[in-house]
Design brief:
The strands form 4 sheets. A 6-stranded antiparallel beta barrel has the order 12-15-14-13-16-17. The longest helix has 20 residues, at 98-117. The mean pLDDT is 94. Helices cover 24% and strands 29% of the residues. The chain contains 7 helices and 17 strands. The chain is of the alpha/beta class.
C-alpha cells in the first residue's frame, strides 16, 4: 500500500485523482497549497487559486472520501520562485511560463519534500500525464496521457528521476469527460467547477498592470523600431510586449505589424511584418533530460515551443553541459525567449529547456 499525499487545489481534476487512488487501496491524505494571499497580488479574495472557497472545496471532498486534509503554506517559496521569476523575466524582455516554475520549485520540490517529512513516500496531482519505468534504460519516463486534448507534459518537463519515481498521475488513463462523470457520480461539490484558464495570480491576463502594482515601478516609454533600426513609433514600456504580439501596440500602420524583439538595454521594441516572425532554430539553457542522460549526438525529436503549440519535427543536440540547440524541419512562428522548448519521442518526453 502506497502512502500518498494528494495535491488538492479544490478543482475537479485533483479531487478525482484522490478518489481514484483511494478506490485503488492507497493510503491517502489531501493537501492544499497556500501559494499567496489574494490581497497581496491585488485580486479579490474569491478569485484565482488559494481562495477560501478552493480550500473548503478540497476539504469537502476529503471528508467525502474519509481522508485527512491539510493546508501547506508555500507562499514564501511561491513569491520568490514563481512570482519573482515571472516579474524578472518580463523586466528582461522575456516571456516566462510560471506554471513550469510552479511545478519545478513548488509542487514537485517543496510539496514533495513536505510530504516526505510526513512519512509519505509518494505525491499525486491531477495533471494529465503518465509515468513508466523503462527496464531497458533504467530510467523513469514521462509519457503523454490518453486524453491528448488535456496533455500537460509540456509543463512537467523539469521533473527529475527521483520526483518521477515518487509521483502518481491518476488521471493519465482517463479523459476529461470521464473525470467529470466520476465527480458527478460521487457527488463532489466541485463536479461542475470550471477549469482555470489564466495564470493564477494574474486571473484577468493583465500582466503589465500586475507587474507595475507588484513592484511599485514605472516602466518608461521608448521607441518602436523596424528591422533596420529606424524609429517608427513609441511604445508604452517593455513589460507590455511579447514576441508575436499584434494587438495592443497603440500605433497604427498601413499593414499588420508584430513584435519581433524586446530589447531592455536600449528600451526598444522591434516590430516586423508577420514574415519576420519565423525562425528555423533556437538555443536554450537549463536543460533537463528525462528519457536519456545526454544528447551528445544529434537526435531526431518533435518539439513544442509553447504550451498550445503544434509540435514540429526537429533535430536536437547538446552544445554544452547545460545548453542545447534545436533545428526545425519547418520555420516556427514567434520563437520566444523565456518560454520552454520541450522535446518528444512519440509520446515520451525526452526533456526540455528554457529558450534563449
Amino acid at each position: 500500500m502506497r502512502r500518498v499525499t494528494v495535491a488538492m487545489s479544490g478543482g475537479v481534476d485533483s479531487s478525482v485523482a484522490a478518489f481514484v487512488l483511494c478506490r485503488g487501496g492507497d493510503d491517502c491524505v489531501g493537501a492544499t497549497m497556500k501559494l499567496f494571499d489574494n490581497g497581496d497580488v491585488g485580486i479579490p479574495r474569491d478569485q484565482a487559486c488559494c481562495s477560501l472557497d478552493d480550500v473548503e472545496d478540497a476539504r469537502a471532498v476529503c471528508r467525502r472520501l474519509g481522508i485527512d486534509h491539510f493546508v501547506f503554506n508555500f507562499s514564501d517559496a511561491f513569491r520568490r520562485d514563481v512570482i519573482g521569476r515571472f516579474v524578472s523575466a518580463y523586466e528582461r524582455g522575456r516571456t516566462p511560463n510560471p506554471c513550469v516554475d510552479c511545478n519545478r520549485y513548488v509542487k514537485f520540490d517543496a510539496f514533495y519534500r513536505r510530504s516526505r517529512e510526513l512519512g509519505r513516500e509518494y505525491i499525486a496531482t491531477g495533471h494529465y500525464a503518465r509515468t513508466e519505468f523503462d527496464e531497458a534504460s533504467g530510467r523513469w519516463l514521462l509519457r503523454r496521457p490518453v486524453d491528448r486534448n488535456k496533455d500537460q507534459t509540456y509543463v512537467l518537463y523539469s521533473m527529475t528521476q527521483d520526483q518521477l519515481a515518487h509521483t502518481v498521475f491518476p488521471l493519465g488513463e482517463l479523459t476529461k469527460p470521464e473525470v467529470r462523470a466520476i465527480a458527478e457520480r460521487e457527488g463532489f461539490i466541485n463536479a461542475k467547477k470550471r477549469d482555470s484558464q489564466d495564470i493564477c495570480f494574474v486571473p484577468d491576463g493583465r500582466y503589465a498592470e500586475f507587474i507595475e502594482s507588484y513592484t511599485g515601478k514605472e516602466y518608461p516609454p521608448g521607441d518602436f523600431i523596424d528591422a533596420d533600426g529606424a524609429v517608427i513609433g513609441r511604445h508604452g514600456g517593455v513589460i507590455r510586449y511579447t514576441i508575436g504580439q499584434r494587438r495592443g501596440l497603440g500605433v497604427s500602420f498601413c499593414r499588420p505589424m508584430y513584435v519581433a524583439a524586446v530589447n531592455t538595454a536600449d528600451n526598444t521594441v522591434t516590430l516586423t511584418p508577420e514574415s519576420g516572425l519565423y525562425g528555423s532554430s533556437l538555443s536554450a539553457h537549463g536543460v533537463n533530460l528525462i528519457s536519456r542522460e545526454t544528447l551528445e549526438s544529434p537526435v531526431r525529436v518533435t518539439a513544442k515551443i509553447r504550451y498550445s503549440h503544434r509540435e514540429c519535427g526537429a533535430v536536437a543536440v547538446m552544445t554544452d553541459a547545460d545548453a542545447l540547440r534545436v533545428d526545425f524541419d519547418e520555420p516556427q512562428r514567434a520563437i520566444t525567449s523565456g518560454q520552454a522548448v520541450v522535446l518528444y519521442d512519440g509520446d515520451v518526453v525526452v526533456g526540455g529547456a528554457t529558450i534563449d
